Amino acid sequence: MADNLPAEFDVVVVGTGLPESIIAAACARSGQRVLHVDSRNYYGGNWASFSFSGLLSWIKENQEKSENSDECEDWKKLILENEEVISLNKKDKTIEHVEAFCFGDQDSAKDVEEAGALPKLPVFGASGAEGVAQDPNKECPPLDSAVARAESCEPEKAASVDTASTVEENDTEVNCENEGSPSVSSSESALDLGKAEAAPSEVSAQEPKKIMYSQIVREGRRFNIDLVSKLLYSRGLLIDLLIKSNVSRYAEFKNATRILAFREGKVEQVPCSRADVFNSRQLTMVEKRMLMKFLTFCLDYEQHPDEFQDYKNSTFAQFLRTRKLTPSLQHFILHSIAMVSETDCSTVEGLQATRKFLQCLGRYGNTPFLFPLYGQGEIPQCFCRMCAVFGGIYCLRHSVQCLVVDKESGRCKAIIDHFGQRISANYFIVEDSYLSESVCRNVCYRQISRAVLITDQSVLKTDSEQQVSILTVPPVDLGQPAVCVIELCSSTMTCMKDTYLVHLTCPSTKTAREDLEPVVQKLFHLNTEAEKETENEELEKPRVLWAVYFNMRDSSGIDRNSYSNLPSNVYVCSGPDSALGNDCAVKQAETIFQEMFPTEEFCPPPPNPEDIIYDEDELASEESGLSNSPETKPEPSSEESSSRGTVVCNPKVLRTMSLKCSQY
After folding, report:
1. pLDDT class for 529, splitting at 50, 70, 90?
2. What angle (nearest 5°) sits at the alpha carbon of residue 445, between those of residues 444 and 448?
3. Going from the N-terminus, what domains does the chain have, and what CATH number goes with each?
């Protein structure tokens, strides 16, 4: 397979996270020859999403932390006398303290097979474990023969893979779903799902339907579980980039429907738009006028510096107390609109966050946020697809042994892969997790605490079950971080029907379980053997069926000079940060691209397929290499299919296929 790769490229990208994928797409769009490799067997790195069985495999691999032993040692012979090497990590060390628990009914799952799972095949360089070791007191049934291992890059898609454009210019509609209407196209499974979700709840006041663990295993491909939990601001940098580059045609989005607050031990909905404020029954008429007056001020606060100039050195929470707002309004603004820290956020930062929230309202719905169907992990794959369309070559399960550096110039000349092939390039993009400890010895990393729950009810019941909600839980003690909770319904195509997928995120102070379990206990019911006297109270809370906790490295905001002996033509991309949006990744990608190619436009719009003129020889060679006729629906591209061994995409085939798909 290594012989199929050219020996020279313009740009080599190691890692398939969001910033690396954006850079690769931008480079390919500007005409550069791009090689994009990743030692993992899935796209996205720590931005990826998994089916349930895929997540169990991911958990097992991160708990074992085993090193690959099947490596070629002949690569050292390729190093010349005037060259030195910078070794790269072979194993991802960015995930720690992984703990998984099953709180659902633990009926036997030994003979349960995942619906639609592919047969198991030998996997190059990957462990073959399917089960996941868990807490002995709350252990899930063993899955040695229960779950056929499914690759995370192959979630079951009830809708068609290549959807129509869903985020367009301001004068065009976005395909965001209203409450209660699942976004799927016509297929058998999608129709069944839509009928089930559209049906009115007949037992809303009764105990919800019990979900067995075997059902979760069987419907595992209905789940698309993100490693990182984020939403897209409707006027944020990522949405603007998706529109500008036309990458939005590869994805579909759903509008977040509710902004929630946790106050005095209860979850309640926050009115944020003008219509919501005046229709709210939570606020008095005086509070409505006070809130609207303050929000109007925040939209153009820079025009009234005299109103906040004296509080520049104060926190935003202290500034709110001077605005004659009631405690409930202060809570709503601080935790649900600005979504900032009570102790660390300055007045100006709080006003900026509030204005950003308000400016994003109304573009695609009553909230500022969009969520991509099938999960956040779709976004890196969308940019990977764009890169492949413009000639980029992708290789999964393709690890890199080292960077080859010229001693005289100090510039990186090449990489050497695990096949022992030397590949030269002018620029190299490397994800932070691939850098060795010797390069990162002066780097101080932060950590993110993450939890993912599968629950049987929403944290706030309403007439519609199809709600996408965001909730910020304030810290119990000052100085502790607030916890961001995102609850996804089945119409987001991230979980099976009658369940919800809940993501919890905060900056780490301890292990993820220690940071987040107190919040989980406040919002959810964990013990299935509740005492009778507390049973009615506990039934009001959603029941956790399954949960996983883990800490993820936050490598954002690290200065380039912190890395030791890094060649000038090697650029480092960070992993996910703890922020709700994706602005950090987009800014980083654009900055690196402009440093490499200052005269090129960053991700310009692609040409209209009707305007492309093919050379006769090129067109003939492409047609001869395609087995599909123009009337036949093309097969999914390589980045959509499962990754067995090293995957090398044929750019000409992908280019033709993409031009066809874009016309549907």
Report:
1. low
2. 155
3. 8-93+374-443+556-596 (3.50.50.60), 273-360 (1.10.405.10)
For residues 534 and 209, the answer to whether their CB atoms sit within 8 Å is: no
Report pLDDT digits (tens) over 131-187. 343 443 444 444 333 333 334 444 444 333 333 334 444 444 444 444 444 343 333
Residue type, 34: V
In contact, 646 and 397? CB cutoff 8 Å: yes
Comparing CA positions, the residue from 146, 62, 133, 70 lying closest to residue 107 is 146
571 contacts 22 by C-beta, under 8 angstroms: no
CB atoms within 10 A of CB 373: 25
Cα 256 to Cα 261: distance, rounded to the nearest angstrom:
15
What is the b/e burial string over 162-177, where b = at least 16 CB atoms within 10 angstroms of the residue's CB?
bbebbbbeeeeebbbb
pLDDT tens figures, 198-238: 444 444 445 667 888 889 999 999 999 999 999 999 999 99
Distance CA 488, CA 494 (A): 7
Q: How far apart are CA 312 and CA 349, in angstroms?
A: 9
CA distance 465 to 204: 10
Q: Give the pLDDT confidence of 482-517 residue by residue, as tens digits.
A: 999 999 999 999 999 999 999 999 999 999 999 999
Identify the pLDDT of residue 641.
Answer: 39
**Average of per-residue pLDDT values in the chain:** 79
Whole-number Cα distances in Å, 12 to 392, 442, 553: 10, 25, 24
The single-letter code of the amino acid at 248 is S
What angle is formed at CA 514 by the lines to CA 219 and CA 456, rounded to 5 degrees? 30
Q: Is 385 left (phi over 0), alpha (psi -120 to 50) or beta?
A: alpha
Which residue type is seen at 456? D
d(CA 132, CA 91): 19
SS3 string of 17-33? CHHHHHHHHHHHHCCCC
Report the pLDDT value the prediction gives residue 248, as an integer from 0 to 100. 93
The residue ranking higher by pLDDT, 76 or 307, is 307
| The two three-digit tokens of residue 432, written as one number | 């932070």
Strands of the sheet containing 83-87, edge to edge, are: 83-87, 400-406, 412-417, 422-424
pLDDT per residue over 353-381, tens digit each? Answer: 999 999 999 899 889 999 999 999 999 99
Structure-model confidence comparison of residues 195 and 65, the more confident one:
65
Please state the φ and ψ torsions of residue 29, each to the nearest 5 degrees: -65, -30
Q: Is 252 exposed, middle or buried (0-12, 13-18, 19+ CB in 10 A)?
A: buried
Contacts of 492 by beta carbon, 8 Å cutoff, 6+ apart: 254, 371, 373, 374, 375, 468, 501
Tokens of 369: 């946020």
Rounded to 5 degrees, φ, ψ at 6 are: -60, 160
